[in-house]
Design a protein that fits this description.
By secondary structure, this protein is of the alpha+beta class. It has helices spanning 16-23, 26-41, 56-67, 81-93, 136-146, 164-169; strands spanning 2-9, 44-49, 96-103, 106-115, 119-127, 155-157, 172-177. The mean pLDDT is 88.
């Protein structure tokens, strides 16, 4: 079976300004600018850290932000301690960055990003549902894209799923095939 990953083919654009004008419609461009200005005027900020620079206090705030998804009936992945442990161990092993949205020094959104030679993979975006008016998810995505070196990276993989917001940013889709193996016998090694 496979999953679809929206992606942004950065090779199609010279730089962020070129991407911004060609990929976003005029409404999206206005909304991003308006919401970013509102966040900053209210004392908010967007900043980048590596996972190993995240303090214990900040990580607890990230976990709290993640759990706010449950108010909308969405799954809080970090509620499961094994998933949380697996996620943290991957971040400790792989080159990464974390984009944080803060308001009055409190984390209200985050985006985890794995960095590879020619591409990035977005994982784990969430925002505190009490701050929807800022469009934090959109601001986090746009902030990273705006600060991406279009000459260094070929594309951004936005992670699995077809959430509507991803289609605003993506330029295409990539199929990722999964192989599940069950058992440990002669036939479990065959791929059909």
């Amino acid at each position: 079976f496979y999953s679809v990953y929206p992606n942004i083919d950065l090779k199609k654009f010279n730089n962020y300004e070129n991407y911004f004008m060609k990929n976003y419609n005029s409404n999206m461009r206005k909304n991003l600018k308006r919401r970013e200005k509102m966040l900053f005027n209210d004392g908010g900020e967007l900043l980048v850290k590596k996972f190993n620079q995240i303090t214990d206090k900040e990580f607890k705030e990230i976990i709290s932000v993640s759990s706010s998804k449950e108010t909308e009936g969405k799954h809080d992945h970090f509620k499961d301690k094994e998933i949380l442990s697996f996620f943290k161990s991957n971040l400790e092993l792989k080159k990464n960055k974390v984009i944080l949205a803060k308001l009055k020094n409190k984390i209200i959104g985050y985006q985890f990003i794995y960095l590879y030679d020619k591409y990035k993979i977005y994982t784990g975006l969430s925002y505190d549902r009490n701050y929807k008016k800022y469009g934090i998810g959109n601001l986090l995505e746009n902030y990273d894209i705006k600060n991406t070196d279009f000459k260094k990276y070929d594309y951004i993989n936005m992670g699995p799923g077809l959430e509507k917001y991803k289609t605003y940013y993506s330029t295409g889709f990539e199929k990722i095939f999964c192989l599940l193996s069950k058992g440990n016998n002669f036939f479990s090694g065959f791929i059909f």
